Amino acid sequence: MHRASVTVADAGLTPADVLAVARGGARVELAPRALDAMATSRAVVDDLAASPRPVYGVSTGFGALATRHIGPDLRARLQQSLVRSHAAGMGPRVETEVVRGLMLLRLKTLASGRTGVRPEVAQAMADLLNAGITPVVHEYGSLGCSGDLAPLSHCALVLTGEGEAEGPDGTVRPAAGLLAEHGLTPVRLREKEGLALINGTDGMLGMLLMALADLAALFTAADITAAMTLEALLGTDKVLDPALHAIRPHPGQAASAANMLAVLAGSGMTGHHQDQRPRVQDAYSVRCAPQVAGAGRDTLAHAALVADRELAAAVDNPVILEDGRIESNGNFHGAPVAYVLDFLAIAVADLGSIAERRTDRLLDPSRSHGLPAFLADDPGVDSGLMIAQYTQAALVSESKRLAVPASVDSIPSSAMQEDHVSMGWSAARKLRTAVANLTRILAVELVAAARATDMRTQSGDLAPAPATAAVIAALRAAGVPGPDADRFLSPELAVAEEFVRSGALVRAAESATGPLA
């Protein structure tokens, strides 16, 4: 269960904080020291606003228009115009959890005391989150440089009482009415505040943190389904010997092998019942499962390190330093986050690919070592899981396309002032799709491995590992029946997908193994 509230201080947030607010609806509170830090930095901005010296974001235009000096009488309009014009997103709405995550992360940077916004602006954003009001943000509009400009601008626009937002009841309405219903006063922006509200990597970072949480669970699920397939194919668990993995000391590989070995503990099926053509070695998709999943685990660890660094950052331009200087910079460039988002998409595609190869092996009578074709009840009359593998293959193929990196692309913008961009938002969006695909791919492998195990053990001569038996029992109880004549398969695959996504698969296995990595 998520905590009831998350405190935003000048020291930053943890990944758990972000998930608690984005997904769990936790309330947000601003720490007193954060309010003090913002008041101190605001005094710097006020002093600069009174100075005749042009300062970017305070008394100049933006981007390629930064050469124009803006007088005091136009500065409020300057900030509001910035937000209005940059709220130019198009396409489908972005998920509520993504919007809440990016709002919280922007609030974290405001609370750092590096942006120069007034404390009341940060409090207004916290109030918006606590009221359950979610600005409408669109799929397209961010190039991942100068921040996630369009997505953050749609959020900032709602803060000022304009634009559209979804209320706690799920209805999208004009922001002005929603704010009034919840007793919230629209913010009137002052010098630098519009810029500070939109100039960050918050959208791509929030999606990275969610992907890391989802993938940590999915990599454990993948170890379980791989072990179940190895068992159903009467493979050998000798390749999981810790001594073998110690001589190639990648930590992720060792963790995956240990998970698989734990799932297979006590199996009466592994390595003892080969057919008339004994196997010296299992196929790569079975034998190398820990190496592939383990490499993905190590990729997750690297991405988590980058995410932690970004969480500790204050991303804005210009930024106020501890000595009171306000300096332009390029910290808003999304390259560090974009690279790991793309790296994760590669790992996800490969993990899905090896899972699909294992599934196909279970269905092919020439390679399944005695299982019926397509795991059908009466092959020829019944097609069994033939088309479930088609669906799985389609998901794998899409994930391979999504593994093409977004971060190697760049389209210059703002009259060539912003001539190299990260495309980090695009990298994050495609990773979300890839993660959803992986969940479904593993669900198909789970259904196939469970059916194959049931077919192996129907005679009573063979017994699966206790963990496998626990998983199959839980899957059957969830609504995926055992082997029988063909039936409407799509609803069962949907149940299996939720079984994987919800963590029920891992919990079932752990009921026999204890905690898995």
TrEMBL record:
Where is it chiefly localized?
A: cytoplasm
The chain residues annotated with the modification 2,3-didehydroalanine (Ser) are S146
Q: Kindly list the residue ranges recorded as spanning the membrane.
A: none
Query: Which class of enzymes does this protein belong to?
Result: lyase
Maturation and modification = Contains an active site 4-methylidene-imidazol-5-one (MIO), which is formed autocatalytically by cyclization and dehydration of residues Cys-Ser-Gly.
Location in the cell reads: Cytoplasm
Cross-link (5-imidazolinone (Ala-Gly)) at residue(s): C145-G147
EC number, as in UniProt = 4.3.1.3
Which UniProt keywords are listed?
Cytoplasm, Histidine metabolism, Lyase
* Pathway(s) where this gene product acts: Amino-acid degradation; L-histidine degradation into L-glutamate; N-formimidoyl-L-glutamate from L-histidine: step 1/3
| Reactions that this protein is recorded to catalyse | L-histidine = trans-urocanate + NH4(+)
Instruction: Quote the NCBIfam families the UniProt record gives.
Output: hutH, PRK09367.1
Query: Which protein family is named in the record?
Result: Belongs to the PAL/histidase family.
Question: Which protein are we looking at?
Answer: Histidine ammonia-lyase
**Source organism per UniProt:** Yinghuangia aomiensis
